[in-house]
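Milestone 3.1: sequence recovery, worked example.
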């Protein structure tokens, strides 16, 4: 009766069952896997947010397939002072920007644009597991290519090239990666563009964490790439800490002729759904202007939690943190005394600490835990101390 594409394993896993039981018990939880910024104690400018949503124009339905022009112009302004990989910053044409209700929807549009049934998209490993469900729903196949760790993360180009087949339609990069926090380096971006241009493939760049760098210099953006057809995705969820507003975008760049064809076809796909809400689009310029206030708080939280973690790890005999360059997460290398699932379950049941097991992000072997750096500081510190006791007792 049901389509095979939705034949997923639907049973609740051990960790989810244990977490549900823990919450029912009323015991305090030290959530070192927190990913929802709206529940992590940040101070939001509530009046300004609500006022932006009260624009009377939101009462009138004026559908635009790409999204409202003033919203797309605000997105173009967001990129206006950012450097590209191939040179200085440049203005992005709002006509090459398409709005969506979220990056998940934007991915679906791009997969439908590029792939026939059974088409292949190369994706990094480790990386976020959402892509597997999006691929199933688009009737395509994900082909992993490794990120290698050696005093920092690098793309394994030999493995990437070996994974190419006649069905390959795009290489997906997450910049910076979730959860490794690694940025694509300029020489890697150039090599990716060369591969994709030669193979008549596209680059799909997920830049939702782009603003969260470990230094003061803005990160390079794929949105200004011109050597190969490139789709750059981002949105309000991470940039302005407003996931509930459900507004994201795709910037299309590359050789002019093929870009125009891609935009024309994506516009038809977008027009078929017309998903973004009008009030959110009208509020987008304001929401983007508020990002500095919110990002400052989050960056301070990341810095404080990272400093606390490193201080604790100096006292540990068995744990080490992998290098990171940005994003919201830290990766711990832990002793392999069992599966990562067993470790996370024991941490929750015995110490009330919740972390992500490495396999959740497609780490190739056991011995990795992923921690969120946006957890409130007092919770993070106490949870971190409990985690250290678990491993060093």
């Amino acid at each position: 009766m049901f389509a095979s594409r939705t034949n997923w394993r639907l049973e609740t896993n051990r960790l989810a069952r244990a977490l549900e039981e823990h919450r029912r018990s009323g015991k305090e939880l030290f959530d070192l896997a927190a990913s929802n910024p709206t529940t992590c104690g940040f101070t939001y400018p509530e009046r300004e947010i609500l006022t932006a949503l009260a624009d009377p124009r939101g009462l009138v339905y004026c559908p635009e397939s790409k999204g409202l022009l003033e919203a797309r112009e605000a997105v173009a302004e967001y990129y206006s002072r950012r450097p590209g990989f191939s040179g200085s910053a440049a203005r992005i044409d709002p006509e090459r920007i398409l709005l969506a209700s979220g990056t998940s929807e934007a991915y679906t549009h791009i997969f439908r644009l590029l792939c026939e049934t059974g088409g292949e998209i190369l994706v990094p490993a480790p990386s976020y597991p959402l892509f597997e469900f999006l691929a199933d729903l688009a009737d395509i196949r994900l082909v992993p290519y490794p990120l290698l760790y050696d005093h920092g993360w690098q793309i394994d180009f030999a493995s990437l090239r070996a994974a190419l087949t006649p069905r390959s339609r795009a290489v997906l990069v997450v910049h910076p990666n979730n959860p490794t926090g690694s940025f694509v380096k300029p020489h890697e971006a150039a090599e990716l563009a060369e591969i994709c241009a030669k193979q008549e493939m596209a680059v799909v760049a997920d830049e939702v964490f782009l603003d969260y760098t470990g230094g003061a210099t803005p990160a390079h953006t794929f949105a200004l790439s011109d050597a190969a057809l490139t789709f750059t995705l981002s949105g309000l969820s991470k940039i302005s800490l407003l996931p509930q507003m459900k507004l994201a975008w795709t910037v299309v760049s590359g050789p002019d002729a093929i870009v125009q064809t891609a935009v024309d076809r994506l516009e038809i796909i977008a027009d078929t759904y017309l998903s973004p809400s009008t009030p959110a689009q009208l509020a987008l310029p304001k929401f983007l202007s508020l990002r500095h206030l919110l990002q400052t708080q989050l960056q301070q939280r990341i810095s404080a939690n990272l400093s606390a973690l490193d201080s604790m790890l100096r006292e540990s005999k068995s744990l080490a943190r992998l290098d990171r360059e940005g994003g919201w997460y830290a990766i711990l290398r832990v002793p392999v005394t069992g599966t990562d699932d067993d470790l996370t379950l024991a941490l929750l049941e015995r110490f009330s600490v919740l972390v992500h097991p490495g396999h959740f992000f497609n780490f190739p072997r056991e011995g990795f835990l992923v921690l969120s750096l946006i957890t409130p500081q007092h919770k993070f510190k106490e949870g971190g101390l409990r985690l250290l006791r678990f491993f060093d007792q």
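The longest helix spans residues 291-313. The two ends are 53 Å apart (CA to CA).
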